[in-house]
Amino acid sequence: MDSLTLDEALALAHARGGHRISLAMPTRHFGPGSQEEDSTRLRNLLRRASELLAERGLRANDVAALLAPAHALSEDRPFWLRATDGLALLVGPEGMHAFRLDRAPRESVTVDDRYHVRPILDLIGGPRTFWLLAISQKHVQLYAGSRAALAEVPAEGIPESLADAMQWDDFEKASLQFHSGSGGRGPAIFHGTGETSVKDELVRFFRAIDAGLRDHLRDSGTPLVLAGVDYLLPLYRDVNTYPHLADEAVTGNPDSLAGPALHTRALEVAERIADREIRALNARIEEQWGSARITPDPETIVPAAHHGRVETLLLSEDAECIGSYDPESGRVLLRPSGTGEDLLDLAAVATLENGGAVMDLPAGMMPRGAEAVAVLRY
Asked: In sequence order, which residues have a C-beta less than 8 Å from that of residue 306 and are 6 or more positions away?
């Protein structure tokens, strides 16, 4: 999965003018025949994009030039070696943006004067995305995690290792013994010589990590999962200032876990967090269903999102609502069998822009089977 910040997503959503192609397709993890199959699917979608561009009056040479980066991608073997479950391409006057996705999107291609960005919104903190902070004697590493992969995040300002910070050859030999309550959440108890100075050094070290993380995570509502030996985790929790630190952790030395094993264990924690949050949100929606704070009506959702009234927007994966919206009058016109733009895409962007949250969920997890549900601030 590729990473994307909220600011980057909004910049793409607000780009206007010229001919902009938004393409989404499921892909296969690399294996026998996968590149050939996915490349063929991509070329078919680019053929459709060419037809749509021709209908807009673009000459053949200009169509070829605009789509050249996407055609080149179909032959880029290193790219397909890292394929995930889905791919989104945004192609416009400034070039091409390619995003690997951790879920398979509905196959689609649109040509407009703006990008359709819903397929990439999971990259900025959808369900089951998470941060992972792995702390060991030899390494301190921040990862961005998703269902598809763990990706190391260069994190300037974060101490590189416990051993370097403590200036010890072997932290385990520093006369430190630790016992904690259930799951490593209880208070630290130190015994042995120098226990006070050891604890003080650890606290200073963990505060330095926490301070370094602020620049990376301050605008994120994504859960932070810790990975480390159980006697260190309570000390880190005591100094943590990030409000979305997960209660559960990956215990053990992260250096001893191969990448896939670390990803699997962290994802298990993230999935439990996401499932609890979604169940709690659905229960809240069901409790308030029929009140003025809950609406499944796109004609209400779109202007509410535009005016910053949407706290949380739930969208059924791949659902769309075609129509038009006039911000000046607030009028929404639905065109179920006509042409227009995806109003749910507009609502999602407006919700994020105004500090709300957006979740794309499987249809079976949507409240009352709705295609869209908004929780309103007022």
From this structure: 325, 327, 330, 346, 350
